[in-house]
Amino acid sequence: MADYETIPINTLFEIPKLNPGVMKESSPFVAAPAHQEALGFPGELVDNWQEKAIEKLGELLEKSRALRVYMDGCVKCGACTDKCHYFLGTGDPKNMPVARQDLLRKIYRRYFTFSGKYFPKLVGAEDLTKEVLDDWYSYFHQCSQCRRCSVYCPYGIDTAEISMAAREIMDHIGKGQKYCNEILGKVHKIGNNLGLPEKALINTLEDLEEDIEDETGVKVRIPVNEKGADILLVTPSADFFAEPHIDGLIGYAKVFHQAGASWTVSSYASEAANFAMFIGSYEQMKLVAERIRKAAQDLGVKRIIFGECGHAWRVAYSFMNTLAGPFDFLDPAYPVPQHICEYTWDLIQKDKLTLDKSANDHMTLTFHDSCNVARGSRMGDTPGGQFEIPRAIIKAVCNNFVDMAPDTIKEGTFCCGGGGGLLTDDLMEIRTKGASPRMTALQEVVKDSGVTHMAAICAICKTQFAKIMPTYGIGMDRIVSLHQLVSNAIVLDVPPEDEVEAETNEDVATA
Amino acid sequence: MAYELNGVSYEADEEGYLVDLSAWSKELAELIAQDENIEMNDDAWEVVNFLRNYYEEYQIAPAVRVLTKAVKKSLGPEKGNSKYLYELFPYGPAKQACKIAGLPKPTGCI
């Protein structure tokens, strides 16, 4: 097992003892030249990197008024210091949001402000040195861009935007992160983060259809590239591959089946995730988003629905229209885009699904709000819908539901510890330590309320929890997909006898 | 990093995945497994061989579910579950078994 120890937090929000520099060496693998160049970034650290980095920072400050405000605005009030899960889990003061911001702010001051240019020492301005760059690479990859700190900042300074800007600068001087950049290359080439080619996708989904039929006796389809379908489902490719994600996919398929919907997935846009947001690259984000537009147009669909993926929903809900819009070719009667939870909840409200809650009686559920859904988007047409709709679905399909401590859910939710491009094995230490606040809140409801399982609506959260929960004494199978619960409870209509017979005859005839 | 076998050096990435997929051999697999503290018994070989065959056809490792099903078919229902696969490959059947099978690491939110 791991050769480091997690900081045990006995009570929530206990501020850990400061441990300066303890996470200094934690930095992800650097992208290889091939991964960099595929995205149009320099293959390796360029000779005049200082000059290029400052130039890029200047460009970003010109483009984003918000970034300049964030650089100027901090009054060092300290409200954010104990709000970051990576600080709470490591005690490294550079993981305090204000300190993370200052890594970029001190360079901003040195090169872009009057006082910093002439009296750097008085205003905490510093030269951009190799040591600073190393700190950037380490600590801007210890931020999952979850935006919890910004909720508590009286000025609304968004550390996620700052870490995105820093990563964008590092990409442009040739020091990108392997995990994100290799994956983005796969999306451009193959259509998804996994690198799952069309043939494998079709095979996997056919296999899954067989499984569902074996289990339920009902033919539930998972169509691929079906032209003329009404709905395009865009879901994280982990839903085709990993556990418990794939159980969620089965849930979506059953919901569509019961609704009698005509739907399809696309092999060209077989990915909801858009890792370009993590590296702060608008150009890359646009390229990934445009694949979804193209797939929707090529297939001639009327609606786009997103599966359970946290940051994808932020990109879809908040940026999709500017990145790849206008979506005037879709049916305006439906939200563009729509979340699978909105779709399912709508059907539940209209009494279109028969649900047997007792199918989930062996579990007591809690719900983990994913950061990007909670703080970067909304669902439904009322404020807070992104918190209420997933809970309403769980309560409609399960008898036993308990929320975790109020300060750890909804807009105050703690990141799973693996978001923002940190879900890679080379960052396992920070991932495990950063999960400590969420795990503490979970352990509390496990102990006090008998919670057995936690549901989530994000592929990253699900993978991260499956990986790190055993370290905290909770089995890896205790994390479930929200639509897995729907899948368990949904009562499928068995087709009338004669229809089954007719189909069988048809099979014989074509065989 | 690199693996040394019979005086030949085989290049691998930072995490020990072979760079040249065609360089794989059974002996090399044994060596990688040793590095991972995995004992290559018949069942482990069954999984590795399935992965290699699947990869040859589909250019990617199979989904965990597909793998579990295949293991169930060949080794029986008591072994065709992810618990058993994790016993064989504690760091996850997809990632660790792929490494031993000389296949690239699956990427993404998995």
Describe this entry's structure for a reader:
The complex is a heterodimer of chains A (511) and B (110). With 511 residues, chain A is mainly alpha-helical. Chain A contains 22 helices and 7 strands. Chain A has a 4-stranded parallel beta sheet with strand order 2-1-3-4. Chain A has a 3-stranded parallel beta sheet with strand order 5-6-7, with helices on both faces. The radius of gyration of chain A is 24 Å and the shape is globular. Chain B is mostly helical and 110 residues long. In chain B, strands 1-2 form a two-stranded antiparallel sheet. Chains A and B meet through α10, α11 and α20 of A and α3 of B.
Distinctive features:
A: 511 residues; mainly alpha; Fumarate Reductase Iron-sulfur Protein, Chain B, domain 2; 2 domains; four-stranded parallel beta sheet; three-stranded parallel beta sheet; 5% strand; disordered C terminus; B: 110 residues; Arc Repressor Mutant, subunit A
Structure at a glance:
The complex is a heterodimer of chains A (511) and B (110). Chain A is mainly alpha-helical and 511 residues long. Chain A has helices at residues 33-37, 49-63, 65-73, 85-90, 97-112, 114-118, 130-139, 148-152, 159-172, 178-190, 198-216, 245-259, 282-299, 310-324, 340-349, 371-376, 385-397, 428-434, 436-449, 459-468, 482-489, 497-510; strands at 231-234, 263-265, 303-306, 338-339, 365-367, 453-456, 479-481.
